[in-house]
Fold this sequence. Notes:
The protein has two domains: 1-290, no CATH class; 293-396. The protein is 36% helix and 32% strand.
Amino acid sequence: MAKRLNDKKNIYSLTLRKVECPKCSCNLSITEQRGRINYCPYCHASLKGVSYTQADYAVPDKWVPFSSTFGEVKEDLYKQVCAYKYSKFNCAELIDISYITKIYMPMYSYTGRIDYSFKAHTSVDIKNSKGTVTRTVTKHFTGSGSERFSVVEPACTDYNIPREILSFAIGAASDDYGYAQDYSSSFIDDDEHNPLIQVYGVTDSADEVLGKYGEKQINKIADDCISKTAKKEKPSGGSGISYDSKRHKFVVDETYAFMSSYWYLKYGIKDDESYFIFEGSGASTKINNIKDKAIYYFMLLFRLLFISLPALYVFRYFITPDTGERLIATGISAGIAFLGVLAVDQYIYAIFRRIRYKKAFDKGLILKQYGLGLDIFILLSPFILAAIFYVYLMFKR
């Protein structure tokens, strides 16, 4: 680690070698230990013959090292692919991981307090002694409160970082600062036999990032707080909530910078390619699943056939209007058919999941068959319901 930058609190200067991909323009960093980067980890373009330059990266002094192993990352990848409802039955054994990259990205964490207030109104039905609605009145109510918040946002936007990585970091679900440690050169020591390590430096100030990304997240938190409080304060019997005004302000008590860590994998299934992101601390993941068209269209056709039944009932009602009982019967039939689609959907997906997990487990690609208990319950539920109904009929006799 080189010198501390005079105008940046806990931000230091780290010297690395730098190269720009000629195809996607992503800026790639490289340590002295690694000779060259043969291919861009994001677009696969060849980097043979490109020249490297020395570059100083502004980085925080606290880093979240990679505590998750590649084996754990791969296990989670296989698990999520097998759980996806439109994956191939043998998806796990078809997965081809083409590129593995470790990424260090600078983040700002903001903690503080939100003070909020609102004015709202709701409609309340007034009933007589017989329970009949005689009139509807509008009741006004107010509310206020305070809430602590914590948001984490990326401190770098000028490195042409791939969109999927940057979008994952914006509004990060978890603040893994608790895993941060003082910087050590071992965090970025790599060689040709290990995954490529990418380091991105701070390009934006804490105030810039707060205005660009952080305030949006804080405003969303404030809206959620107002919504929850309004539901509690709403007068008894009120139907719906309409806001006359909403106000909130926030104060940031503490801001600190740290380097967060991510695994970035490019993987393919046959001719389709996608990506998988896994936090270095193992806190959360994001996957862009690959859809098998045959399974997708099979399920789509099944739904269309199933939904056509209530559609025929509705059509029959409109061409032969009769009493209100027919309308009620049509609505009930449509509702039952809709619930039936959802139930059979889950039943079919449970079968598909078990096939995928069984194949992956037998091939030694996953350590266990995830969600086995829930899927067994789903698969046995029709028989359980049938048994309950049979017992009911027996007692009714």
